[in-house]
């Protein structure tokens, strides 16, 4: 029996466990411009505390995380309710709904780059034709984070919706019948019955999205590379650039271990929340 | 018509309107991408944008003429097929063993790896692969992408293996069947559809993965996704070719996903949700 899992275990040790331990060790090293490495103790971590770019990256990461998660949960639950009341969904409709999150995030970035072009993009044309002012979208330091959140939400809201739809379909019909007999309004029924019963599913969707949102990379790297300036420089983008553009592997390791701790901390916190709303 | 029936129809109509709006928002950007890829170059950047035009394949021809698109596509195929095969080779027996023995830590470790930011692994891999001269090799790319495919295979298959009654295996064991034989002859045929779903999901996520190839590939082994920068170019002059590239890159995962759309959500949540 042990022999059956041996290849997977060996692979996991070689490609995951050992490299992570190695990253911890790299986090205690400094690399000079000539590539010479030496032991630095906690220098990378003290540097991190005084590094304004790190704190900026943390702020960008959290802002993007909160904004995207809120959008995706609100619209995801709405879309799930709409799909639920549509009853039967043909395979074609389902395929269309999953198409945003099954395409590569890089492709989503490429196509929104064209749509959101400040001077020739279709998005600004639509805004102007309904009398709204055009936006610089990804090129604007103020709007780049909401814009990236919007792109990611376009991609992943249907995913959240399908998870919540699964939760809706597994709710016992008897609770609705009771509400109907009591003459509860649809809004009251949703607020007092559906939403509380759905909360565990919604928290599960939140966990799955948080893991991706806290390490946000693909769409930003393909569209802005952290810009304009450093306006969309998330921790993952910052760590990547420190490591592979400036080749400061030691400091990048410290940054990435910190980000990993944040991701796992968030997952554990959400997991406790899920325990609290379970029924 | 009674009031209640009238209300019912009104609610149905309202729901359909919402469904159509949601569908339009979801589909519009993709439709725009595909339309733009068939526009003549002077019309791609027309402002106001045009919807009616004479479709042309010029962007696709331009793309294959000016960039090594086909060799990037071949690289993507090699890395994706290789890592999917490796994920299945390691993941199927591992999922079976975890399901049988209830020793879950190997499965949980691969899941933890899936949650950590990719850069966390990429930093030590870069140092390690450089030391042995493997940067730019297909081997390094396939091994790194197997970190994506292995947890997908294990976690999609775990519920399938769990669903097989124990008595099936116990009877085979009494008949003197070895564990490997039970897996190969009895368990795997029973979870064949699960294996197909896990293979397709692994393929899609390996194909879509960006970060690792960005650092571990070189000019000869660059995957389509990592080469996306080469297509973006300067300004809006190449929009037609860019949208042609985007359409072609998105096509394989979208076609495969349509095949398994029914099982997709439960598979994608790695067992957290039964959809």
Q: What is the topological layout?
A:
The complex is a heterodimer of chains A (279) and B (275).
Chain A: H1 2-26, E1 29-31, E2 37-39, H2 43-50, H3 52-85, H4 91-102, H5 105-115, H6 122-129, H7 144-169, H8 174-181, H9 186-214, H10 218-223, H11 235-244, H12 249-277
Antiparallel strand pairs in A: 1-2
Chain B: H1 3-37, H2 41-44, H3 58-66, H4 69-101, H5 105-115, H6 118-131, H7 138-162, H8 166-174, H9 179-190, H10 192-208, H11 211-216, H12 228-232, H13 239-259, H14 261-268
What is the radius of gyration of chain A? 23 Å
Measured as a percent range, the helix fraction of chain A is: over 70%
- Biggest chain pair contact, residues each? A-B, 88 and 95 residues
What's the mean pLDDT score of chain B? Answer: 89
Biggest pleated-sheet summary of chain A: 2 strands, antiparallel
Written overview of the protein:
The complex is a heterodimer of chains A (279) and B (275). In chain A, 74% of the residues lie in helices and 2% in strands. Chain A is mostly helical and 279 residues long. In chain A, helix 2 (43-50) crosses helix 12, helix 4 packs antiparallel against helix 7 (144-169) and helix 11 runs antiparallel to helix 12 (249-277). By secondary structure, chain B is mostly helical. Chain B has helices spanning 3-37, 41-44, 58-66, 69-101, 105-115, 118-131, 138-162, 166-174, 179-190, 192-208, 211-216, 228-232, 239-259, 261-268. In chain B, helix 4 packs parallel to helix 7, helix 4 (69-101) crosses helix 10 (192-208) and helix 5 (105-115) packs across helix 7 (138-162). The model of chain B has no long low-confidence stretch (mean pLDDT 89). At the A-B interface, helix 1, helix 3, helix 4, helix 5 and helix 6 of A face helix 1, helix 4, helix 5, helix 6 and helix 7 of B.
List keywords for this structure.
heterodimer; A: 279 residues; mainly alpha; MetI-like fold; 12 helices; B: 275 residues; 2 domains; flat; BP-dep_ABC_trans_perm (chain B); cell membrane (chain B)
């Amino acid at each position: 029996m042990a022999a059956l899992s041996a290849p997977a275990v060996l692979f996991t040790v070689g490609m995951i466990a050992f490299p992570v331990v190695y990253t911890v060790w790299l986090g205690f090293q400094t690399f000079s411009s000539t590539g010479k490495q030496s032991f630095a103790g906690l220098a990378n971590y003290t540097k991190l505390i005084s590094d304004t770019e790190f704190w900026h990256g943390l702020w960008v990461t959290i802002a993007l995380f909160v904004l995207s998660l809120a959008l995706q949960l609100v619209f995801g639950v709405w879309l799930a309710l709409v799909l639920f009341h549509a009853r039967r969904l043909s395979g074609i409709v389902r395929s269309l709904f999953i198409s945003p999150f099954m395409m590569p995030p890089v492709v989503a970035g490429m196509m929104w780059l064209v749509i959101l072009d400040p001077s020739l993009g279709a998005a600004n044309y639509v805004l102007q034709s309904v009398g709204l002012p055009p936006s610089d979208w990804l090129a604007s330091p103020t709007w780049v984070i909401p814009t990236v959140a919007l792109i990611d939400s376009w991609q992943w809201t249907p995913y959240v919706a399908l998870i919540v739809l699964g939760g809706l379909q597994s709710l016992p019909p008897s609770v609705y019948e009771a509400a109907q007999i009591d003459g509860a309004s649809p809004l009251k029924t949703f607020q007092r019955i559906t939403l509380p019963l759905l909360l565990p599913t919604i928290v599960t969707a939140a966990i799955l999205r948080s893991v991706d949102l806290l390490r946000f990379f693909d769409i930003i790297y393909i569209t802005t590379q952290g810009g304009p300036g450093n306006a969309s420089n998330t921790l993952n983008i910052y760590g990547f650039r420190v490591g592979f553009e400036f080749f400061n592997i030691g400091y990048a390791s410290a940054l990435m271990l910190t980000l990993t701790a944040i991701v796992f901390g968030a997952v554990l916190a959400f997991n406790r929340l899920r325990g609290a709303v379970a029924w | 018509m009674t009031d209640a029936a009238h209300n019912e129809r009104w609610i149905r109509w309202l729901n359909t309107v919402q469904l159509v709006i949601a569908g339009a928002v979801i589909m519009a950007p993709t439709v725009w991408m595909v339309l733009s890829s068939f526009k003549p170059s002077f019309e791609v950047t027309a402002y106001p944008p045009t919807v009616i035009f004479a479709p042309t394949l010029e962007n696709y021809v331009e793309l294959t003429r000016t960039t090594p698109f086909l060799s990037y596509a071949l690289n993507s195929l090699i890395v994706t097929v290789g890592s999917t095969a490796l994920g299945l080779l390691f993941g199927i027996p591992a999922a079976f063993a975890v399901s049988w023995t209830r020793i879950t830590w190997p499965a949980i470790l691969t899941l933890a790896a899936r949650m950590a930011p990719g850069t966390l692994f990429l930093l030590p891999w870069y140092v390690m692969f450089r030391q042995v001269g493997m940067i730019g090799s297909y081997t390094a790319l396939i091994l790194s992408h197997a970190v994506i495919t292995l947890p997908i295979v294990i976690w999609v298959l775990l519920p399938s293996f769990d669903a097989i009654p124990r008595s099936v295996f116990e009877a085979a064991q009494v008949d003197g069947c070895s564990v490997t034989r039970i897996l190969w002859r009895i368990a795997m045929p029973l979870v064949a559809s699960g294996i197909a779903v896990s293979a397709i999901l692994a393929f899609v996520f390996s194909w879509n993965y960006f970060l690792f190839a960005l650092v571990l590939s070189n000019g000869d082994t660059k995957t389509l996704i990592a080469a996306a920068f080469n297509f973006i170019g300067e300004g809006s002059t190449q929009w037609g070719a860019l949208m042609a590239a985007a359409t072609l890159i998105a096509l394989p995962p979208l076609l495969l996903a349509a095949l398994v759309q029914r099982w997709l959500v439960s598979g994608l949540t790695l067992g957290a949700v039964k959809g």
